[in-house]
Amino acid sequence: MFGKIALGAAAITTAAGGGIAAAPGSTQGEYRPHQGKHQETRQEIRTAIAANDFAAWYDIVSNKEDSPIAAVANEELFAEMVAIYELHESGDHEGAKEAKESLREAYNLRTRQAKKMET
User: Fold this and answer.
1) Paired strand residues for 17
2) 8 A C-beta contact, residue 72 and residue 107
């Protein structure tokens, strides 16, 4: 059986043998050199939070280019991020989501989507 589902600019084709194909002209799936470094940095941040390692976390976020957190990075913010991580780990994803939204408001941190909507 074949089926097509249109998702934004990309069309995904499924078949019994499996496979996903991007629509012509789509950049989906293309390698972008900056993505690897970004993912690596995100993983380093997550590792520091999981280990409750403020010094490592601060070093990463304060040296990250265009980091909205760099200007407000402190031990209190880090402790709140660790608490959010612990909520996720305990399975309280809704509580973690609410805490994250509250944290964004308290520190005036916007998501990438919110930033895009402003421009």
Assistant:
1) none
2) yes
Give Cα 104 distance to the centre of its chain.
14
| pLDDT value of position 68 | 77
Q: What are 40-85's pLDDT values in tens digits? A: 888 999 999 999 999 999 999 988 777 778 888 999 999 999 999 9
Fill in the DSSP letter of residue 118: H
The Cα 13–Cα 22 span in angstroms is 8
Q: Could you give the C-alpha distances from 114 to 66, 79, 117, in angstroms and in order? A: 16, 24, 5
- 3-state SS string over 15-43? CCCCCCCCCCCCCCCCCCHHHHHHHHHHH
pLDDT number for residue 101? 92
What single string gives the DSSP state of each residue in 60-111?
HHHTSTT-TTTTT--HHHHHHHHHHHHHHHHT-HHHHHHHHHHHHHHTT---
